[in-house]
Give the backbone structure.
Amino acid sequence: MVLFAVALVVLALDRLTKWYVSTHMEIGQSIPVIPHVFHITYIRNPGAAFGLGASQAGLFVVITVVVVVLIIVFARHVGPGQTLLRFALGFELGGALGNLYDRVLGGAVIDFLDFRVWPVFNLADAAIVTGGLLFILYLALTWQRV
């Protein structure tokens, strides 16, 4: 249950922030929050991370659907007490679904978090990274128990 609750919260926050940016800003518009450090910059990314593979949108949809199915199947085998793993998978699932929604319905992912030293990203991307880091932490904490 934790996994799906986390995924739902991530998906809802991702959709809400992307809706707000896409309805209140023009593509390419950038609003400084902390000048030269953090801006809200509205872009649409048809590719994967860093805009790579812009012509492979269909492939990214297929890969994401496979990942979502694998997370759901794997989650069925996660034991009770493995809460950290459930959180990790929830972040991954919510982030994947958030970007999948954009790709399927909009043809490109809406990105807007701009730290000026890193490519522009969104909450779904941040959730995917957070899930990955939580998974690494889970592995580190359970390594000795194997």
